[in-house]
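To: structure subgroup
Subject: Chain for Friday's discussion

All,

I'm putting the inputs and outputs inline so they're searchable in the archive.
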Amino acid sequence: MVDTGISRARAARIDGLDYLAAPAETTAELGVRADAVGHVVLMHLHTTTPVRLAGSAPSGTFLQRAELD
């Protein structure tokens, strides 16, 4: 999975943002259980956007080093 979206509550505070679904809902629509996702690639990091997949981070979560520097 690439990126993980934001929560419905956070999206509600952003003017003009149309919230579509949580990652677990989207993967389910594609026939993939959220707990079956083994790797997540985060394209960018926000302190307000933690990884959200079935309530816990998968074992392989990747982020470019520049986001941490």
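Points worth raising on Friday:
The chain is about 15% helix and 10% strand.
The first helix runs from residue 8 to 12.

D.
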